[in-house]
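Entry 14. Ran structure prediction on the chain below.
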Amino acid sequence: MNIYRKMMVVVFATLSLFLFKGPVFADQIDQNPSSTTSTTAVVSALESKKESLTDALTASYDELNELKSEVESIKVNDPWDKIKTNLLNQTDKIKDYYNNSSEKLGSENIDQDSIKSLAKELKYFREGVFSEYYKNSINFILIFEEANLLKIADSRLDKISSDLARLEKQSVSKTKTLKTLYNDADKHLKLAHDLNDSAKTLFYNYLNPVKPDETKPEETNQKKEDQISDPQALIRNISHKSLDELKATYDIFINMSKTL
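Output, C-alpha cells:
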C-alpha cells in the first residue's frame, strides 16, 4: 500500500527540519551585517526549510486523500456507517489543520524560528491526532476489505461443494481425496471468519468504550485487569492471522484443482 511509503516521506521531511544546521545564524549576521554572503546563506537556509516542510505537507495531503478514498469505498451498514462517517469527518478536520499550516508557511513574515516551531507542531500532530486517525482508518479498511474477500471465498467453497456432490454421483475415483481437502479448506475458512469477527468486535469496542457508570463495580475492576496495552496492534495482528487462514484456504483450492 502506497500509504506507508508516503507516511515515511512525511516523517523524514519533517524531522530533517530539526536536524538542519545552516552555515550562518541570526547572531552571526548581527556581528557582520555587511556580509552579503551571510545574508544569502540565511535566505537559502530559510527557503530550504520551507521547501522541506512544503514537501511534508504535500505528502500529507496525498496520504490523507488516499486514506479518505479507501475509507469511502468501503460499504458498511449500521452501526459501522456512523464510524465510517466519523472517520471521514476527521479527515476533513485534519485537512483544515494542514491548510492552516500551509497558510502559515506561505506568510511573507515567516522566519527560521517560525518554521522550526511549525515543523515541531506538525510532528506532534502526526504523533498524536494523525497517528490515531491513521491507525483507525487502516484497521477499518483492513477488516472490511478482508470481510469482502471472505465472502468471495465462501462462494468459491459453495461451488466446490456442489462440484463434489456431482463428482460423487459420477463415482470419480479422487472424490475421497477431494473431500478431505474440502474439509480442510472449510476449517481454515471458518477460522478466518472467526478471527475477522474478533478483530471487528475488538475494533468496535475500542472505538466505543463502555463508560464506568454503565457497568457494575466488579465488572469495572475486571475490565481494568483485562485492558490491552496496544489494542490497535492486537486488532491488526488478529486481522493478519485471519488473512493467513484465508491464504491457507486458497492454497487448498489450488491443490484441489491440481488433484482433478
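The chain has a mean pLDDT of 81. Will compare against last week's run tomorrow.
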